[in-house]
Amino acid sequence: MRITCQGNSVTELKIMGNKLPKVSEFNGFALPNQTLSPSFSMDSFVTTLTRLSNLRVLCLVSLGIWGPLPDKIHRLYSLQLLDISSNFMFGTIPSQMSRMVSLRTLALDGNFFNDTMPDWLDSLTNLTVLSLKNNKLKGQFPSSLSRSTSLTDIILSHNALSGKLPDMSALSGLHLLDLRENHFDSELPPLPRGLTNILLSNNSLSGIIPKQLGKLEQLQHLDLSNNILSGTPPSELFSLPNISYLNLASNMLSGSLPERIDCGDVLGFVDISGNRLVGSLPSCLDSTSGKRTVKFGWNCLSIDTKNQHSKAYCDKVVTESKHFTRKAIVVLVGVIGGIVVIVVLLAVGLFIFCRRHHASATPPDLHTMPKVVQDNPSSAVSSELLANARIISQAAKLGTQGTMVYRLFSMEELEEATNHFDQSMLLGEGSIKKIYKGRLENGNYVAIRSLALHKKFLIRNLKLRLDLLSKLRHPHLVCLLGHCIDGGVQDDSTVNRVFLVYEFVPSGNFHAHLSDTSPEKVLKWSDRLAVLIGVAKAVHFLHTGVIPPSTCNRLKTKNILLDEHGIAKLSDYGMSIITEEVEKSRAKGDDSKSWHMTKSEDDIYNFGFILLESLVDPISRGKGEAFLLNEMASFGSQDGGQKFVDPFVLTTSSQESLSIVISITSKCISPESSRPSFEDVLWNLQYAAQVQATADADQKSDAASLS
Question: What CATH number should be reported for the domain whose range is 509-707?
């Protein structure tokens, strides 16, 4: 919680909670028990807030607030930032908010707003960031947005929006357009040239990819996957100077790519799989070079034929698609006609039945009917909200979704994937393990860890341990896909090697990114916080989300990997389950120190050292753990901070955000008895990230005002 005052007025109110959606029964309704109490009134709450007439920043995140957003919210006319994300708000976004002309950032993410998108957004002439993702908004993309020239970020992903996308070329300041996971079915519209991120995956967009996209020289990230786009993709897309991520997978793209394409220098990921492309692959997309990750399976290309369709398949699909529209119209007319006839017959039958039943029915006894007390109808919990609360609760239990099913691998598969464990496929090695890069028969890249177990495990015991390890699934854990036991599978003989097959995470480890001082690759403070929060969530899951808990997870910056989106994933977790460390502790007669009983404080200390490495400059980081620990005491002083904190951190962080992380770092590295829980660590990091996001938004708006 943070309250900021100027003079006698409150100007900022920020409260962040940790309300996670769970379901319990209340008055016959399945009301999420992580909401505020049933007596809570959003209307009364906003009435109280409107007394703060000089309030400029209002953040109420993950507090369990529920109910419709009252019309009177517009009385907070001085608001510049409104963030009510991750709550249980539902209904309509009130039109009276069009009077809040001072608003620069509006974030209502992760709620249950279920009406149409507001069409008055161009009235908010100072609005730069609009984020309404993860709601139930429906209807068309509002035409008013195409006139909101102050916008820099439009984030409407994971809703139920549909229809056509308008011409957005007038939005000269727009940098981020995120419309993923909706139902838009138009062609790609004209877009502004200043865009850096275009995310339009999982819609029904059709037509060709316009050549205009190949002129967006600021574009860094383009995702058009899982649509029905056709034609040949413009070769200019691959050579854009700043493009680093290009995903055109799962469309209807056809034709052949030019043999000579000059790929951009920073292009690191390309996915053109699941289309109808023919011919050969341009040399700059040669995935064996290691310069970039390229996915091209299930086209009709002349390379890697075992993962391609035949050319006849693509020719047939293209030919059939030309006749599809006419046939579809005929079929659709027939289906609609049949449905109309059935509906009319059902309506007539229902009318006759109701007339007869009404004549013989006894009027209900009002005194015996269930009574629902509803003092304020506008605050009632909608059935759609309650249904979605159940879905969210189930989704939280599922953890990582869309991951491959865990399975057994054969030695033949692994040998083929690694060219018989050729030295060129070796990614790294340690005292008891080697890690290889491999490519499976389906084209997916994997990381294969070869463990040399020096102790004698019973096969049955080892399989139980592997089964337990396979259940550790989380979005920020490197996913374990399967294993192979080399030798002694049919009996209880000793085991020489165990191979663990993981998803391949392509963008290197956190330690390397922290050590990289090149201006285009160095991680700014907000990016470092995002990585740290992801890892903290993973470790919190390992400590509290599984029984028995997994501790001693070898936390260090080299074991934090980044995927192509910059998402952090922890590797080397849970290794104590199957390595000799278990036997060593038991050999000492200390059964309480078995892998699931080791102290979680060890992970907290190691994570504290990761925090420390994220703070200091590369030179200090290279002097080792003892030096950093000795200098930790000086972090609290201004001189110490200037001396040892990474200069790039100092220039990209707010003082408050940095102070929060320094404080929690000090606590993690302190004597064992006073170390915080991982829940406390995670909360502090999330709060530091929100403070930093607010500071960045303020800086951006100040810069815009000056310009």
Answer: 1.10.510.10
